[in-house]
Amino acid sequence: MPCGVMRQARLTASLTINTGLSTGFPSTQKGKAEKTALSIISSPRNAKMESLQSGRKWRTQSLGMTLLNMAIVLLLVFPGRTEGQREKKKSDGIEYKAIRCRAHSASLADFGAVGDGTTSNTAAFQAAINHLSQFANNGGAQLFVPPGRWLTGSFNLTSHFTLFLHRDAVILASQVKSEWPVIKPLPSYGYGRDATGGRYASLIFGTNLTDVIITGDNGTLDGQGAVWWDRFHNKQLNYTRPYLIEILYSDMVQISHLTLINSPSWNIHPVYSSNVIVQGITILAPVHSPNTDGINPDSCTNTRIEDCYIVSGDDCVAVKSGWDEYGISFGMPTKQLIIRRLTCISPTSAVIALGSEMSGGIEDVRAEDIVAINSESGVRIKTSIGRGGYVKDIYVRGMTMKTVKWVFWMTDNYGSHPDNKYNPNAIPIVKNINYRDMVAENVTMAARLEGIPGDAFTGICISNVTIGLSQKPKKLQWNCTDVIGISSEVVPMPCNLLPDQGREKPVMCAFPEEKLPIEDLEMQTCFAGAL
Q: Which residues are catalytic?
């Protein structure tokens, strides 16, 4: 059974649904949130939920499930601790699943670290990792982070290495600027996102690595982002804010079974990397926190994102590949990406966004079994003249949405540019976009589809979609310009640019049946710590 998407709701139900997420998330509220979630799911009404099914059967599913039921009922399917997360009561330690196990292990405490929440442990983290790097070619090594509150600035990982957090371990991001090295902008971006200069290194950082794992028993990374959000709003930043996890130019990367809260900016950013797994992650940020994207695969190949629960002030998943002329020159697309069993709350942004930084190209993206709650849009394609590149071969099926502004949104004028050197003749190509088997409730507007005049977005297919409108919906439900495609069995009826194919010859939009290579990667049973 997969790692529980809604296992994470044990931590977040009372915070994400009842409080409106107006403040940051203290990790001490985990227990309270868990009790709230468990009390909610005890209701007999939630004792059963049919699995999502494709094809016409989808339309017969009940649309009466409330927002709360949608978010919590999956707890019955995804238990709190899965096979990959059991704690064995024997000296072997905590059992977990990973792409590789390690022959050597050490505890952070062995290197002089103090888990009191106030002592800086930046040097201890780096000393431990440097020491364990000697075992890279001798079975690899694992650093165990025991219970405690471990304050640290940015630190670098090494190859053939596992960072494992105990369930009661919290890595606290330092708020002292000197503990955050400034590094160059990414070559496919040219500039930082917050400022034209460099950027602060991420809390957990790695480059040119092979076989690196960041995992745990649902331990926590706390970015303590409020101070960074204030600096951003007050225009006090000389460099771009740090992310929580960033891995560059690497192969065989696993990020799993952790809770990330209050990131200064983006949470997880694999970039220029291949064979990446992001699994069983909970991400929590106040919904008005700036640019706290959840997971942003960027110029990556063969990536698997699954069983994640995200509450964000920006897109829950944003697929990227570089910015304008810098991304075009770098020329590294994101491709072979699968996103499945994702639950997202993002009132001001998208559940899944493609772009807007897509100048290196985005292709072969597959998303299925997605739950969107109180989010601005379900799937959004963001691009602009000057981006160049392409978004093509996109497949989405099995999506359930409750309270969204737009179900479908394609934007041709997302006009943020790094500088004025972009090529106005660099026209992005958007084609072969497939959506099927979707149900949405409390929707303001079905679709806003805006292609580029003279360069229409083509090959759009939408089938077997039922959209229930809010009490105050827009009069015009489908606003379509410069798009070409078809629709089949869609309610309400789409625009004339997406003609219905008729009941006599219904169409099912494409979704590839063959697996991506990353889906066949088998996990090993490993152990961390000593009981």
A: 314
